[in-house]
Design a protein that fits this description.
Elements: E1 9-12, H1 17-28, E2 34-35, H2 47-57, E3 61-64, H3 72-77, H4 79-99, E4 104-108, H5 137-161, E5 164-170, E6 172-174, H6 187-200, E7 205-209, E8 215-216, E9 218-220, H7 221-233, H8 236-242, E10 249-252, E11 259-260, H9 261-272, E12 277-281, E13 290-291, H10 296-300, H11 309-328
Helix pairs in contact: 1-7, 2-4, 4-5, 6-9, 9-11
The structure holds NADP nicotinamide-adenine-dinucleotide phosphate.
NADP nicotinamide-adenine-dinucleotide phosphate binds near residues 17, 19, 45, 65 and 170.
Length: about 325
Amino acid sequence: MTIDCMQKIYIAGHRGMVGSAIVRELSNKGYNNLVYRTHQELDLANQVAVENFFAQVKPDQVYLAAAKVGGIYANNTYPAEFIYENLMVQNNVIHQAFLSGVKKLLFLGSSCIYPKLAPQPMSEDALLMGKLEPTNEPYAIAKIAGIKMCESYNRQYGKSHGVDYRSVMPTNLFGPGDNYHPENSHVIPALIRRFHEAKVTNAPEVVIWGTGSQRREFLYVDDMAKASIFVMELNKIQYDEVTSPLQSYLNVGFGGADITITELAATIAKVVNYQGKISFDSTKPDGPSQKWMNSSKLNQLGWKAQQDLQSGLNKTYIDFCKKLDTVSE
Ligand SMILES: NC(=O)c1ccc[n+]([C@@H]2O[C@H](COP(=O)([O-])OP(=O)(O)OC[C@H]3O[C@@H](n4cnc5c(N)ncnc54)[C@H](OP(=O)(O)O)[C@@H]3O)[C@@H](O)[C@H]2O)c1
């Protein structure tokens, strides 16, 4: 496949975990006309600022990886911020991209869009077939709106304006650049921090929220970046073969088996070399009992995850330690 390396590509959220991995991967592939702005330089929730940015910069393609993201505690504590900021960011970026003539855009959704009791592994046709998990419903509703916005623009402006806006639904992601905040982070960075701190302070026990029996799937962020670019680069005939106008998104999962939080915790403790006791607080919420994506459509198109959990965790722990060094310098 030939790559037009001069395509001007805007990566929204380039300093985030996924956005920075997309930048790394695009650069590795030879794309050298990448455009980005920090949150401070451009607040994507500000309609006028986004309008001015697109009118001036006029990118050819957009990767929309900017969003308000967090784990179960953050979603449950700040539901208004999760729905407001995500809707604003995606509405502004998708609409202004369209007005400035962007033909190709990739929206990053999430596996949270699927109903709490969706059959496992969850396939694309489970969308809107049941009630969502209440703890992250506002975030999920925003993500569903993002998918439907892309679909609606394709349906209305696909033929007339050549609009081709695609969406990918990642499973739980982890890797360098993750958010290790003690409360607002996802399970892997949160456990890395907890086990590391317990090791340093010689704490005899680490107590983890929930029963530990929930099953989850995890994908290394560089694999996610590769999948994003793979989907963006697919020709329209291939993309249309596995999607439809009202189901235009693709799942991106690890593809192998999911694991329990108990198994995950044991693996992270090993990576961090924490040798104390691990116990569970079952009075705290578990979230859905299982979340496992069916990624067969993407696999059928030729994409497969490459990084296994253990080596991905090793790289993530190195990243966490580097961040600690920077803070303590
Ligand atoms: N992480 C996961 O496990 C996971 C799983 C499924 C889907 N996803 C999706 O993947 C995408 C990227 O997630 P991520 O993990 O890379 O998140 P992240 O590390 O938190 O990065 C998000 C980025 O978006 C920026 N941003 C947020 N609001 C903004 C605004 N109003 N204006 C400008 N920039 C703004 C953030 O900047 P600041 O930090 O400066 O605010 C940050 O750089 C999101 O759409 C997320 O929903 C992530």
